[in-house]
Request: fold
Amino acid sequence: MAKLNREWHLQHKLPRNATREERLDWHLLHAENCQCREMPESIRLELEARGWTAPTPRSLK
Ligand SMILES: [Zn+2]
Reply:
């Protein structure tokens, strides 16, 4: 069952008109703080193209 970090979501609202950069930032933080949903493929690929690697379960608290 995916775990929703409600606190984090309340503090990090992604605006409907968010830019691509904001969206990438949001998903990056989201992946580190919450597991309620998978990162979209397009976002993941773009982050990986920038040198980001998906956090492993061991790197998460
Ligand atoms: Zn979430």
Summary: The radius of gyration is 12 Å. Residues 20-59 form one domain. Helices lie at 6-11, 20-33, 41-49.
